[in-house]
Write a structure and sequence with these properties.
Strand content: 5-15%
Structural class: mainly alpha
Number of helices: 11
Helix content: 40-55%
Distance between the termini: 149 Å
């Protein structure tokens, strides 16, 4: 009796499938042995596994090295406009040098530009310059004592007019560092009235002549306060009376402040040529008609 063969009971279709499975086993596609059933312990361990763990392991991590950067990210745009070189024209050639006159004119224009953003800043600098100039010895000077000017007016500090009695008595006079009394102020005022009555003033009587007439002195802060208030008033009057004063060069403004500080208003009958030059904004004529500097 021949040995039983499983293929004897197969039809053609079953036989074809059987042969295919056998070939897959030989190729290792299908295991030849059945997998053993997992033990209860292995089943519990499998159930406790993170279902996303295997996925996380297979997901590629982001690259942190420089090789992950876009190689085109830092590349310059070849179509971006190129800044024009100041030394070359559109065809790559050097432009012709500017004429000397044009260069000089541009430099002078740059020098004429004022560094102040507004007139408030310019005014602060004008006040500072004016006080600095006025306290010089060849101008008003700086004196803490009382004296009579060339016109016989009581004066002190940086040319401050204190001829008015109320003004004189309101100041914080000091004697040897202590405040002067009302009686001491009144006596000093009357003493200078007597000197004025005796014509003890004029060109031959300098400020030093009056230094020992009275021992009253003004503190420095009061002297500077009086000068500053005087200069601020002068600037306000010049702005109101001289057209375009704000736009004048600060050097010219200094001259006009100095004139007004010493002579008062720039009346047309006293300064006809200067006022005409100011109206016409003729700077050369303005400088020609101020005789203080």
């Amino acid at each position: 009796m021949s040995k039983y063969d499983i293929t004897d009971d197969m039809n053609q279709w079953e036989y074809a499938i059987y042969n295919m499975l056998q070939r897959q086993k030989e190729m290792g596609i299908i295991p030849t042995t059945k997998p053993t059933a997992a033990t209860p312990e292995e089943q519990i361990e499998e159930s406790l596994k993170n279902p996303y763990e295997s996925q996380a392991e297979t997901t590629p991590k982001p690259r942190t090295d420089n090789s992950s950067k876009n190689p085109y990210a830092q590349r310059e745009n070849p179509y971006a406009p190129v800044a024009k070189s100041p030394y070359k024209d559109d065809y790559g050639a050097k432009p012709a040098p500017k004429p000397a006159e044009e260069v000089i004119e541009e430099e002078e224009e740059e020098e004429r530009k004022e560094p102040w953003k507004n007139f408030a800043e310019k005014k602060a600098e004008l006040i500072r310059r004016s006080i600095e100039h006025l306290q010089k010895k060849d101008c008003e000077g700086f004196k803490a004592h009382i004296y009579l000017d060339t016109e016989g007016k009581m004066t002190t500090g940086i040319g401050a007019n204190i001829d008015n009695k109320a003004t004189f008595m309101s100041l914080d006079w000091q004697i040897n560092g202590r405040p002067a009394t009302y009686a001491e102020k009144l006596k000093a005022y009357n003493d200078f009235l007597d000197l004025k009555a005796k014509n003890k003033y004029g060109e031959k009587y300098g400020a030093k002549y009056f230094k020992d007439i009275s021992t009253m002195r003004l503190p420095n802060e009061t002297i500077y306060r009086l000068c500053r208030e005087h200069v601020e008033d002068d600037i306000a009057m010049l702005r109101a009376g001289v057209k375009g004063f704000d736009d004048f060069p600060i050097e010219l403004q200094e001259v006009l402040v100095d004139i007004r500080y010493n002579t008062g208003n720039l009346y047309r009958h006293k300064w006809p040529k200067l006022r005409k030059a100011l109206d016409e904004r003729d700077l050369e004529s303005i400088y020609d008609n101020v005789n203080r500097y």
